[in-house]
Amino acid sequence: MAMGHLTPGANTAPMTEINTTPLVDVMLVLLIIFIITAPLMTHSVKVDLPRASSTPTPEKPMTLQVFIDADNRVFVGSEAVDAADLEARFRDAVASDANAELHLKADRATRYERVAETMSAARRAGLGKIGFVTQPGEDRK
Fold it and tell me: What is the pTM of this model?
Protein backbone atom coordinates (compact mmCIF):
# COMPACT_ATOMS: atom_id res chain seq x y z
CA MET A 1 0.00 0.00 0.00
CA ALA A 2 1.58 3.16 -1.13
CA MET A 3 0.88 6.04 1.17
CA GLY A 4 2.91 8.58 -0.71
CA HIS A 5 6.11 8.23 1.20
CA LEU A 6 9.07 9.84 -0.32
CA THR A 7 11.44 7.25 -1.48
CA PRO A 8 14.80 8.07 -2.91
CA GLY A 9 13.80 6.96 -6.38
CA ALA A 10 10.32 8.64 -6.54
CA ASN A 11 9.42 11.42 -8.99
CA THR A 12 9.57 14.74 -7.09
CA ALA A 13 8.50 17.05 -9.96
CA PRO A 14 5.66 19.49 -9.16
CA MET A 15 2.16 18.70 -10.39
CA THR A 16 1.53 20.66 -13.61
CA GLU A 17 -2.08 19.72 -14.32
CA ILE A 18 -5.00 22.08 -13.55
CA ASN A 19 -7.96 20.58 -11.75
CA THR A 20 -10.89 21.46 -14.04
CA THR A 21 -13.63 19.83 -11.98
CA PRO A 22 -14.65 23.05 -10.10
CA LEU A 23 -14.66 24.97 -13.40
CA VAL A 24 -16.96 22.41 -15.00
CA ASP A 25 -19.26 22.53 -11.95
CA VAL A 26 -19.60 26.32 -12.16
CA MET A 27 -20.21 26.22 -15.90
CA LEU A 28 -22.95 23.61 -15.51
CA VAL A 29 -24.69 25.70 -12.82
CA LEU A 30 -24.58 28.79 -15.07
CA LEU A 31 -25.92 26.78 -18.00
CA ILE A 32 -28.84 25.52 -15.93
CA ILE A 33 -29.63 29.06 -14.71
CA PHE A 34 -29.65 30.40 -18.27
CA ILE A 35 -31.79 27.50 -19.52
CA ILE A 36 -34.38 28.23 -16.81
CA THR A 37 -34.42 32.03 -17.12
CA ALA A 38 -34.31 32.35 -20.93
CA PRO A 39 -37.99 31.46 -21.48
CA LEU A 40 -39.01 33.88 -18.72
CA MET A 41 -37.35 36.79 -20.50
CA THR A 42 -39.72 36.57 -23.47
CA HIS A 43 -42.87 36.49 -21.31
CA SER A 44 -42.72 40.00 -19.92
CA VAL A 45 -45.75 42.05 -18.94
CA LYS A 46 -46.88 44.52 -21.57
CA VAL A 47 -47.66 47.95 -20.15
CA ASP A 48 -49.14 50.84 -22.08
CA LEU A 49 -47.25 53.81 -20.65
CA PRO A 50 -48.89 57.24 -20.63
CA ARG A 51 -47.70 59.87 -23.06
CA ALA A 52 -46.10 63.00 -21.67
CA SER A 53 -46.17 66.32 -23.39
CA SER A 54 -43.78 69.02 -22.40
CA THR A 55 -45.37 72.12 -21.03
CA PRO A 56 -44.35 75.39 -22.61
CA THR A 57 -41.86 77.38 -20.61
CA PRO A 58 -43.48 80.30 -18.85
CA GLU A 59 -42.74 83.68 -20.28
CA LYS A 60 -40.55 86.01 -18.29
CA PRO A 61 -42.57 88.67 -16.54
CA MET A 62 -42.27 92.27 -17.62
CA THR A 63 -39.64 94.17 -15.66
CA LEU A 64 -39.85 97.85 -14.87
CA GLN A 65 -36.45 99.48 -14.58
CA VAL A 66 -36.76 102.37 -12.13
CA PHE A 67 -33.79 104.64 -11.48
CA ILE A 68 -33.45 107.24 -8.73
CA ASP A 69 -30.54 109.60 -9.25
CA ALA A 70 -28.56 111.61 -6.71
CA ASP A 71 -30.97 114.56 -7.11
CA ASN A 72 -33.89 112.27 -6.09
CA ARG A 73 -35.42 112.32 -9.57
CA VAL A 74 -37.24 109.13 -10.59
CA PHE A 75 -36.87 107.61 -14.05
CA VAL A 76 -38.91 104.72 -15.43
CA GLY A 77 -36.69 103.37 -18.17
CA SER A 78 -35.09 106.54 -19.51
CA GLU A 79 -38.16 108.76 -18.99
CA ALA A 80 -38.37 111.10 -15.99
CA VAL A 81 -41.58 110.62 -14.01
CA ASP A 82 -43.14 112.86 -11.35
CA ALA A 83 -43.94 111.36 -7.96
CA ALA A 84 -47.66 111.90 -8.61
CA ASP A 85 -47.55 109.95 -11.90
CA LEU A 86 -45.38 107.12 -10.57
CA GLU A 87 -48.19 105.04 -9.08
CA ALA A 88 -50.25 105.40 -12.28
CA ARG A 89 -47.29 104.10 -14.32
CA PHE A 90 -47.00 101.14 -11.98
CA ARG A 91 -50.75 100.42 -12.27
CA ASP A 92 -50.47 100.44 -16.07
CA ALA A 93 -47.64 97.92 -15.87
CA VAL A 94 -49.67 95.64 -13.57
CA ALA A 95 -52.66 95.94 -15.91
CA SER A 96 -50.57 94.74 -18.86
CA ASP A 97 -48.78 91.98 -16.90
CA ALA A 98 -50.00 90.84 -13.48
CA ASN A 99 -46.59 89.30 -12.74
CA ALA A 100 -44.63 92.46 -13.49
CA GLU A 101 -41.46 93.00 -11.48
CA LEU A 102 -39.82 96.22 -10.35
CA HIS A 103 -36.03 96.54 -10.51
CA LEU A 104 -35.01 99.54 -8.46
CA LYS A 105 -31.64 101.20 -8.96
CA ALA A 106 -30.95 104.02 -6.54
CA ASP A 107 -27.88 106.22 -6.42
CA ARG A 108 -25.74 105.98 -3.31
CA ALA A 109 -26.53 109.61 -2.45
CA THR A 110 -30.31 109.15 -2.81
CA ARG A 111 -32.34 109.87 0.29
CA TYR A 112 -33.91 106.73 1.71
CA GLU A 113 -37.23 108.58 1.99
CA ARG A 114 -37.44 108.75 -1.82
CA VAL A 115 -36.69 105.03 -2.13
CA ALA A 116 -39.38 104.21 0.46
CA GLU A 117 -41.93 106.39 -1.36
CA THR A 118 -41.19 104.61 -4.64
CA MET A 119 -41.56 101.21 -2.98
CA SER A 120 -44.85 102.26 -1.36
CA ALA A 121 -46.22 103.44 -4.71
CA ALA A 122 -45.25 100.10 -6.25
CA ARG A 123 -47.00 98.14 -3.48
CA ARG A 124 -50.15 100.25 -3.73
CA ALA A 125 -50.20 99.68 -7.50
CA GLY A 126 -50.04 95.91 -6.98
CA LEU A 127 -46.43 95.15 -7.88
CA GLY A 128 -45.61 92.07 -5.86
CA LYS A 129 -41.93 91.68 -6.66
CA ILE A 130 -39.47 94.46 -5.99
CA GLY A 131 -35.77 93.88 -6.47
CA PHE A 132 -32.85 96.14 -5.64
CA VAL A 133 -30.09 96.33 -8.21
CA THR A 134 -26.64 96.88 -6.73
CA GLN A 135 -23.13 96.98 -8.03
CA PRO A 136 -20.79 94.29 -6.73
CA GLY A 137 -18.34 95.74 -4.27
CA GLU A 138 -15.08 94.62 -2.77
CA ASP A 139 -15.07 91.96 -0.09
CA ARG A 140 -14.10 93.46 3.23
CA LYS A 141 -12.46 91.21 5.76
Answer: 0.55
